[in-house]
């Protein structure tokens, strides 16, 4: 940890967004003694986890003027991480066994995550810091401070000055649509997973789903319940891949990548197979976008790399007044938000100091060079994958908080392993009961639960 040189001071901080990252940022900033205003354009906390049956008018999300629907959650969505490793560290995401309206499964539905975040906001009295239905439309540096312009539901806008702004606006709303050769003249329907809600519209269709990670695996199986055929294009698979799955509905094929789309309606895969498809569903991820941010050209997004951003949190020349919580995707999310928020709060109070801007830039340039040397494309800069635990260890040490419990990362690794090997049932069949037990014992030893449950969630095996 960098030793503090300054006196601890309280700052006036704007947090943009009241999803998981904004809620924990608000709590950590408040705990550190800062005054906090959270701006949230929705009517409630929860961000992405607020399911809406509505989707956007442009199914691919290409029209920049389209009205935005924030959430990308589909009706059948269950978490892709076990609940024990997912929750904030001092507010475990354990089942509410006395409340039958709640979902006690180890991988619960999106509604349970929303309920958990609402519980968290209530427990730590965060809602009183939130201005609901208030959208931040511009953030800019002015004389060493930050000017924030917001607009409420009556369209009334106002400017306010803050010492610092923490951006927690999420990054699963702006679709990334993979390019398919020939797609311009392909006559079928196209939709991005951001706008997928229920399988009904795909009844009796032949559907091609691009992507085979969490959303692709889920959506292809959801659609297969009603579609005639579902063909999944899987980039990670060898070119010759062609496999018919007998489960769950005997109408699902896994292929390699798409070679081309043709004007007769067919989609040709790299394995040489061709299908006449009605719809293509892109489960190809999202793009970072901060339309409210004006940094006079200092920051930019190039090939989905938000730059320059020291350790994915601080833009060197604008730090610590501007920071970002939640940018790296995949792996443990809520705990990462928590540790990043503790770092931001401690830096703003002066308890922890950042290196000089030139040093942060040197570090960044070295990390970009390292990615290039490893052949990792720019667009994966914020995908930490296997190095997430090293990253979290570094940030935790920097701000003097406990390192992440090893059982959490082990649960994530085992869970992703099951997702790859058993996408149908990875949420209900597991073989890491020892890690569940370890998690609950850890919660009990920290007095986060009042008693050890007499049973742990049971595998459906
Ligand atoms: P969000 O939840 O998106 O919240 C951002 C908030 O900012 C929103 O409330 C939005 O309204 C608000 N906002 C945005 N712009 C403005 C503005 N200009 N002014 C005011 N308010 C604004 N993670 C897991 O840990 N487990 C899972 O199982 C899991 N499943 C996922 C499934 C899907 C389909 C997706 C897309 C992601 C999943 N994730 C999962 C990752 C998930 O995104 C994070 O866990 C987390 O919920 C993101 O929180 P966030 O606060 O960063 O963003």
Per-chain topology:
Layout: E1 12-16, H1 20-31, E2 35-39, H2 83-86, H3 110-123, E3 130-131, E4 135-142, E5 145-151, E6 157-162, E7 164-167, E8 174-175, E9 189-192, E10 206-210, H4 214-224, E11 229-233, E12 242-245, E13 252-255, E14 258-261, E15 266-269, E16 274-276, E17 279-282, E18 286-287, E19 300-302, E20 305-307, E21 322-324, H5 334-349, H6 357-373, H7 388-399, H8 406-421, H9 433-445
Parallel strand pairs: 1-2, 1-7, 2-3, 7-21, 9-17, 10-11, 10-17, 11-13
Antiparallel strand pairs: 4-5, 5-6, 8-18, 12-13, 14-15, 15-16, 19-20
Helix pairs in contact: 1-5, 5-7, 8-9
This protein binds flavin-adenine dinucleotide.
Flavin-adenine dinucleotide binds next to helix 1 and strand 4.
EC number: 1.-.-.-
InterPro entries: FAD/NAD-bd_sf, Flavin_mOase, Flavin_mOase-like, FMO-like
Family: Belongs to the FMO family.
Classify the helix fraction into a percent range. Answer: 10-25%
What is the residue-mean pLDDT, rounded to a whole number? Answer: 94
Q: Quickly give the structural class.
A: alpha/beta
Alpha carbon gap, first and last residue: 45 Å
Protein name: Flavin-containing monooxygenase
Organism: Brassica rapa subsp. trilocularis
Pfam family, one: FMO-like
EC number: 1.-.-.-
Question: Can you describe this structure?
Answer:
This protein has 461 residues and is α/β, with parallel strands linked by helices. Helices cover 25% and strands 19% of the residues. The chain contains nine helices and 21 strands. α1 (20-31) runs parallel beside α5 (334-349). The longest helix has 17 residues, at 357-373. The radius of gyration is 23 Å and the shape is globular. The model has no long low-confidence stretch (mean pLDDT 94). Bound molecules: flavin-adenine dinucleotide (FAD). Its cofactor is FAD. Pfam families: FMO-like. Keywords: FAD, Flavoprotein, Monooxygenase, NADP, Oxidoreductase.
């Amino acid at each position: 940890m960098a030793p503090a040189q300054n006196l601890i001071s309280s700052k006036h901080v704007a947090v943009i967004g009241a999803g998981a990252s904004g809620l924990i940022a608000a709590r950590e900033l408040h705990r550190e003694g800062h005054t906090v205003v959270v701006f949230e354009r929705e009517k409630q906390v929860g961000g992405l986890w607020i399911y809406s049956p509505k989707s956007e008018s442009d199914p691919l999300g290409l029209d920049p003027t389209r009205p935005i629907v924030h959430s990308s959650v589909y009706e059948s969505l269950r978490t892709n991480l076990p609940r024990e490793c997912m929750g904030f560290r001092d507010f475990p995401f354990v089942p509410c066994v006395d409340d039958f309206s709640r979902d006690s499964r180890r991988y619960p539905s999106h509604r349970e995550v929303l309920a958990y975040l609402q519980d968290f906001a209530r427990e730590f009295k965060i809602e009183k810091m939130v201005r609901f239905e208030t959208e931040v439309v511009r953030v800019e540096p002015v004389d060493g401070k930050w000017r924030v312009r917001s607009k409420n539901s009556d369209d009334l806008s106002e400017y306010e000055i803050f010492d610092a702004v923490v951006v927690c606006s999420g990054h699963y709303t702006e679709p990334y649509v993979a390019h398919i050769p020939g797609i311009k003249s392909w006559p079928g329907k196209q939709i991005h997973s951001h706008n997928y809600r229920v399988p009904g519209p795909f009844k009796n269709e032949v559907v091609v789903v691009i992507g085979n990670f969490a959303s692709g695996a889920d959506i292809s199986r959801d659609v297969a319940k009603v579609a005639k055929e579902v063909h999944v294009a899987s980039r990670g698979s060898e070119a010759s891949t062609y496999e018919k799955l007998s489960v769950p509905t005997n109408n699902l094929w896994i292929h390699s990548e798409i070679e081309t789309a043709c004007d007769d309606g067919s989609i040709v895969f790299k394995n040489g197979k061709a299908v006449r498809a009605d719809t293509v569903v892109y489960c190809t991820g999202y793009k970072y976008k901060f339309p409210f941010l004006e940094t006079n050209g200092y920051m930019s997004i190039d090939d989905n790399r938000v730059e320059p951003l020291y350790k994915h949190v601080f833009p060197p020349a604008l730090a610590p007044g501007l920071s970002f919580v939640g940018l790296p995707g995949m792996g443990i999310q809520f705990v990462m938000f928590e540790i990043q928020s503790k770092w931001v709060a401690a830096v703003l109070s002066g308890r922890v100091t950042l290196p000089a801007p030139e040093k942060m830039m040197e570090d960044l340039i070295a990390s970009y060079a390292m990615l290039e040397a490893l052949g990792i494309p720019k667009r994966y800069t914020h995908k930490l994958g296997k190095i997430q635990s090293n990253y979290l260890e570094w940030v935790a040490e920097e701000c003097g908080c406990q390192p992440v419990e090893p059982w959490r990362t082990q649960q994530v690794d085992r869970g992703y392993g099951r997702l790859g090997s058993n996408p149908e049932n990875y949420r209900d069949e597991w073989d890491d009961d020892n890690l569940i037990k370890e998690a609950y014992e850890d919660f009990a030893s920290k007095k986060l639960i009042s008693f050890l449950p007499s049973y742990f969630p049971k595998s459906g095996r």
